[in-house]
Amino acid sequence: MNEHQRTALDLAASGMPVLPLRAGKVPFGNCYRCAGNACGGRPNMRTAGPCHCPAPCHAWAAATSDPDVIASAVWGPAWARAGAVAYHPGGAGLTVVDLDDADAVMWARESLPATQTVPTTRGEHWLYRGLMRSANAVRPGVDIKSTMAYARWLGPGAGTLTALPEDVRALAASTAPAPKPVTVAAPSRGGQCRHRTPAFLERGIAMAEGRIAEAAGGVHATVYRTFLAVLSTHGRCGCLTVDHIARLFTAAQAKGESPRHCTEAWANARTRLGL
Fold first, then answer.
1. How high is the pLDDT of residue 87?
2. What is the Cα gyration radius of the chain?
3. Strand 84-87 and strand 135-139: pairing?
4. Are 60 and 87 in contact (CB under 8 A)?
5. Rounded CA separation 273/264 (Å)
6. How many angstroms separate the CA atoms of 249 and 247, rounded?
7. Which of 14, 47, 210, 220 has the smallest C-beta neighbourhood within 10 Å, fewest atoms?
8. pTM for the complete prediction?
9. Does residue 224 contact residue 268 with C-beta atoms inside 8 Å?
10. Which residues, in sequence order, are bridge partners of residue 19?
11. What does 157-219 look like in DSSP terms, one character per residue?
């Protein structure tokens, strides 16, 4: 067991989901079975799909706090080649404001509430308690890492961890991409839903939008489960239209999901139900 693996076990004992990084601070590439996300991801790591690959090959989604996994022979080769330890901030209930240079650090000191800070090679990581959508380049030299992201472990730093301020959430909101058009077809099996009223469908779509919007973490899994629930109720009777699906995709993209992830989650849900 090397130093990185021991560090990972110490962090996992405190509930921090960790993963090994290669030299250059990048995750290990997917194994051939999981290349191109052909496996659909790992549901127990906040992604949709059936994959049960035990290797650390799913980037941030491979992060785990299970000491048996971290110390397993399967992860052993990765730790032997690792150049650093990373963690999934969102999985630990944290948001990291990554300040990449001195100008960004000066801006944070003038604009954000004091919190726990960790020195980096060129700047600082500011850690806050709370989850949000990750976003890059929210302003010059500033990235936000929380859900669906990883950050390099550089030590505990100094200061007292404080609650995530609305000013940081606003930075990500200002860079949210506009939702893109839906590119999937609606099921076509006979028009009006035979077993419920149109109002039932409308309530179901509204509830699904709300469930996605309220997700505090695990957005991948929430989107997949929500799509699955909608399709299990209405996917076989032909009442879903492209407009309904567009509403679901728009809600998912507002939480940071890409159009590709939306399409994959929809396809996975249809496959799961045999549609």
1. 95
2. 20
3. unpaired
4. no
5. 14
6. 6
7. 14
8. 0.65
9. yes
10. 86
11. -BS--EEPPHHHHHHHHTTPPPPPPP-SPPP-SSSS-SSS-HHHHHHHHHHHHHHHHT--S-H
Look up residue 89 and give its two tokens: 């901030």
d(CA 254, CA 257) in angstroms, rounded, equals 7
Please, what is the angle between helix 242-254 and helix 259-273, to 10°? Answer: 130
pLDDT of 193 reads 54
Q: Would you give the DSSP letter of residue 133?
A: B
Among candidate residues 148, 208, 4, 1, the one with its CA nearest the CA of residue 86: 4
Neighbouring residues of 132: CB distance < 8 A, sequence distance ≥ 6: 95, 144, 146, 147, 164, 168, 169, 172
Residue 257 phi, psi (nearest 5):
-70, 140
φ and ψ at residue 129, rounded to 5 degrees: -85, 115
3-state helix, strand, coil in the chain (%, to 5): 40, 15, 45
219-234 helix and 242-254 helix, angle to the nearest 10 degrees: 170
- Alpha-carbon distance of 64 to 129, in angstroms, equals 19
Backbone angles phi, psi at 133, to 5 degrees: -70, 135
Question: Cα 116–157–98 angle (5° rounding)?
Answer: 65
Each residue's pLDDT tens digit in the chain (275 positions)?
Answer: 899 999 999 999 999 999 999 987 888 888 888 776 677 665 444 444 457 788 898 888 888 999 999 999 999 999 999 999 999 998 899 999 999 999 999 999 999 999 999 999 999 999 999 988 888 888 999 999 998 789 999 999 999 999 999 999 988 876 655 555 555 555 555 445 555 567 778 888 888 888 888 777 678 888 889 999 888 888 877 778 887 888 888 888 877 777 778 888 888 888 888 87
